[in-house]
Design a protein that fits this description.
77% helix, single chain, mainly alpha
Amino acid sequence: MKKIDLGQTITILANIGVIAGIVFLALELKQNNELLEAEARQALVDRRISLAQLVASNNELADVVAKARAGEDLSPGEQRRLYALNVTIFVGVESQFAEFQRGELELEDLSMGGLTNALSGSGFSANALEFWEAWKNTTNPEFRAFVDERIIANLSQ
């Protein structure tokens, strides 16, 4: 009968411990990734809700949007409010696009429907298309191309 070498036994047990640790780490990473994806989706929902609440809870802003849609002249202050609303919309969607590029959101999770509505004049804002044309050069080139090629190009169809 062979004697079991204590050093060899300890080495084998240490290797098994390392393998178990790697498996445990892989499970932890998977859970962490799932949590990050859930947080990204929740942040997206929170942004959508906050934009809706912004317009719904601010009568002056709602009136500015309605006035702009009706083609009425806006005072400088009203123009500023409408500009700020458009910045809010586009910065939010650009942020979502960046999350999509990093793999934190899927393409179908993006607020492209809301942006399409805004650009076509039926969303929360008015004059979003004019705003986009004036503002798009300040955006990420990939986001700019995405909006121009996937949304603006389809508005006229």
